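ARCHIVE CARD
Drawer: 12
Card no.: 0347
Subject: one protein chain, sequence and derived structure
Cross-reference: see card 0346
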Amino acid sequence: MLALVALLALAGIAVAGPTGLLAWSENVTALEQREAEIAKLSAQRDALRNRVQLLDPEAADPDLASELVREQLGVIHEDDVVITLEDEAP
């Protein structure tokens, strides 16, 4: 009799426990949400890594450096127009 009660308790836990069959779909949904969050954070990390490489003191991107300086000093305006000049060949 005691073995039957123990077996029924284990079966109940397997079905309704925190890692049982009833919680399976909830765990799958949580896993999908976490994977989407990881993908989003990975994209943000890659964008930040690219920005750090562009600001490397050895070879800083002049356009990005100019943009950051203007933004930090508060001299950037919404109606600014950027005009690029072609380098003349000798």
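Annotation on reverse: The mean pLDDT is 81. DSSP finds three helices and no strands in the chain.
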